[in-house]
Specification:
Length: 277
């Protein structure tokens, strides 16, 4: 059976890339409608799906042609990580709040809203019967049938304070909340100027991102995990895969050096090759 939330829940703040005030209200969804963004400015709800992707530079953006919602991945990661299938997301502004740079505030809001089961609605899932691989340069993905939904993700960056980090993770709502949701987004100080010149990261600060300089890691309260970077990449991957529109089932996924563009391409391949059950 499908799930949604019981009560509305709201989060306010400023968007990471656009730097503008924003408010998101999670609302229960009656139908089997997946994740949808709603706004008085939209003619109709904007489904968070692969066929609506507008961009994958430093975040994943979706559009209906007239309206775009930027940086949807952390919010979607929280919903998918907690096993919520249907969610209406009312948004003011064009980007959800950056919150603390992680998915934890979204996950906490969803938990506060409560999970509601919909016994009369069938839950279709995405699974595989064989192995699937995708590679481009040093980016590599692999998926095969598994027990439960599990990941092995490697993040690798040539910097003495980062290096290679690998996280292995079996997805359950409880484990997601403790091991993945709190991992914050991060950036390298040498990229920040170019990012701002491109109109991105305008709301970014040490309140909502970890910044890595040549000599130190600037993280409010210190890093939350020694491998926080790999965990955040996993958080992003779970959010981007949610755009497939079907929850994963009994699948093992390996990802090396993933990013939003590769995540989305992999989600498309997965959807194309998977059995919908
Ligand atoms: Zn992220």
């Amino acid at each position: 059976m499908r799930t949604t939330i019981k009560e509305p829940a709201t989060i306010e703040g400023i968007g990471l890339h656009k730097g503008k005030p924003s408010k998101v209200t999670f609302l229960p969804a009656e139908g089997a409608t997946g994740y949808r963004f709603l706004s008085p400015l939209f003619k109709e709800p904007l489904p968070a799906r692969l066929d609506r992707i507008a961009g994958t530079v430093r975040g994943t953006n979706i559009t209906d042609g007239a309206n775009t919602v930027y940086t949807v991945e952390h919010l979607l990661s929280a919903a998918a990580g907690l096993g919520i299938d249907d969610l209406d997301i009312e948004i003011t502004g064009e980007e959800p709040p950056a919150a603390d740079g992680s998915a934890l505030p979204f996950a906490q809001a969803l938990l506060k809203a409560g999970r509601k089961e919909k016994p009369d609605q069938e839950r279709k899932t995405l699974s595989l019967t064989g192995q699937l691989e995708m590679a481009k340069g040093d980016i590599r993905f692999l998926a095969r049938p598994g027990l439960g939904v599990s990941f092995k993700l490697t993040y690798d960056y040539p910097h003495k304070l980062v290096g290679k980090q690998t996280i292995e993770f079996l997805l359950t709502p409880e484990e997601y909340l403790v091991r993945v949701a709190p991992a914050r987004t991060f950036g390298f100080s040498h990229e920040l100027e170019a990012l701002k010149a491109a109109g991105l990261g305008l709301g970014g600060s040490l309140d909502n991102a970890v910044v890595i300089t040549e000599t130190e890691v600037l993280a409010k309260g210190g890093l939350r995990y020694a491998d926080e970077f790999a965990r955040h990449k996993l958080l992003d991957l779970i959010g981007d895969l949610a755009l497939a529109g079907l929850p994963l089932k009994d699948i093992y996924i390996e990802a090396e050096r993933p990013g939003h563009a590769a995540n989305v391409n992999f989600a498309k391949l997965l959807l194309e090759k998977a059995q919908n059950q």
